[in-house]
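Input record (one chain):
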Amino acid sequence: MRLDHTISTAFVGLKTNKMRSALTILGIVIGIMSIILVMSVGRGAEEMILSQVRGMGTRSIVIEPGRDPQGPSDFLELYTDSLTLDDVKAIQKPTNVQGVDQVVPMVLQVMNISYAEESVRKSVFGSNDELLDVYSLSLRAGSNITPEDVRQNATVAIIGSNIKQKLYGAQNPIGTKIKIKGKVFQVVGELAPKGNVMMTNMDDAVIVPYTTAQKYLMGINHLHALFVNAQTEDIVERVSRDLTLTLRETHGISDPSKDDFHLTTQADAVERVGMITDVLTILLVSIAAISLLVGGIGIMNIMLVSVTERTKEVGLRKAVGATHHDILMQFLAEAIILTGLGGVIGIASGFGFAYLTSLILTNFADLNWVFVFPLSATILGLVVSSSIGLVFGLYPARKAAKMNPIDALRYE
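The corresponding structure, as predicted from the sequence alone:
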């Protein structure tokens, strides 16, 4: 039997029970749709995070307390007090680290911020005048904090655009007084809208001198992070090595396995983000694949029912000359067509839901989300759905092909 005739015969068999055929492929549709959605959202999340990492610049090196996390328990060490101002002074010495352009200390905590009768709870950054440059921020109005503000523990603040809108509306905030954790600060600047930087929405942030934040707001002497910019991209690796050696010396560490700090360059961050998103995507795709297994079992079940119902048809076709191979190919074609059709519908549905998700995250969650629909997801969806039809349709097709024509014609 020619292939075109086999396919047309398979379509005729499927059209006789349209509702059953539609319900049969439902599990395949849901499974493929879930896989497409997960892969698209995973790639979108990866692109969003990477765009923020790249926004820090290729010369940036981030130093954080605690050793480089290798497992869940290591993340607890990120909150140690191992970074101090002594480290800043040591890093700034050219005899210790050559090629450093900027050193930006940082402390961060979520606090209550109020003006008049209005109040919000947002992130408060304690840093110096170079944070705006490192984070690629600009001022809409007012001025930056100064090195003198840092030295004198000045109670001055720069507010994000969203905080300005929530607390002041159309009023000019420059020169007014706000309260942060009950302490009065004078607003000296307003940030231009920026959005997310390093997973923090700077439009919902306040920047104060880090010395002021340590003394008056947090009561700490340590730092939560240090941002170091190398003078050129070419020397980032060498600067990272010098930073490591300097910090080990200031911390009295001789055994590298005992490091109480870790460094991250842009290349490290990109690699780490890619690894994390890949693992999460694989995990979620594996969960979604369970519905494909269920759908495949459903295909086999319905095909077995179909073979039983069409026993006389099989016997009649064999009686007029249909071969074992013809019957096998007819029922196998029906299974592959069913699952292939389910795959196409699943891909289209996954595309629609992925696009809708990107619109929601962009317009309602205030995220700089990028809609990504990888070609590999489409190919995977078609290959997987067709393979399910082949694997789970083979047993019913072989059962039909092995029928004895005389017994099949006698079947009641």
